[in-house]
Amino acid sequence: MFSSAFDHLGAKEGNYYPDCLRDEIDAVNDRVYDNLNNGVYKTGFASTQGTYEREVAAVFDTLDWLEERLAKEPYLIGGQLTEADIRLLPTLLRFDPVYYGHFKCNLRALVDYPALWAYTRRLYQHPAIGPTVDFQHIKGHYYGSHANLNPSGIVPVGPERDFDAPA
Question: What digits encode the pLDDT tens for the residues 53-85?
Fold first, then answer.
């Protein structure tokens, strides 16, 4: 899907799933999806303390692993923007504004990870990415659509994060 299937429809041209990196992209995607992209949901909707603690540990183990990778390289795989980066980004953008508080993923904030926070800002500042992000909509949706987690429907005003700060 990310190799070039959408180029003719106005998508940014490029191969984000090159043959030579596919095995590594798939391995990173598997870990990130299970433990972070979906992990925040498994944490936020946990119905027992034991489940919550197991799932939140997996979220932060994965964030720690990503921090270590990104402390050495500008992107997750092969020194270039790939599908793995694109699939990770929405979760990172939502982490502090939503998942940290609403889903109780509050062991550490994204801004507590220097390499991961710089990486997130760098991707957000990409001219084809930043303009597609609406933080007020993101927060309004999450805090307004899970009455069991937020019965009052109050949308917090924070946290303030400067995604435009130099990466």
Answer: 999 999 999 999 999 999 999 999 999 999 999
What is the CATH class of 7-145?
A: mainly alpha
Residues 6+ apart with CB under 8 A from 66: 32, 36, 76, 88, 113, 116
pTM of the model: 0.91
Residue with tokens 């959408």: 6
Q: Which residues contact 124 (CB under 8 A, 6 or more apart)?
A: 89, 93, 130, 133, 163, 164
120, 122, 125, 127 alpha-carbon torsion, rounded to 10°: -120
The Cβ of residue 3 has, within 10 Å, a number of other Cβ atoms equal to 14
- For the record, the structure tokens of 114 come out as 């220097």
Cβ-based burial of 141 (10 A; exposed 0-12, middle 13-18, buried ≥19): middle
Q: Which amino acid is at 64?
A: D
Chain segment 27-48, per-residue pLDDT in tens: 999 999 999 999 999 999 999 9
Nearest CA to 133 out of 101, 82, 104, 97 is that of 97
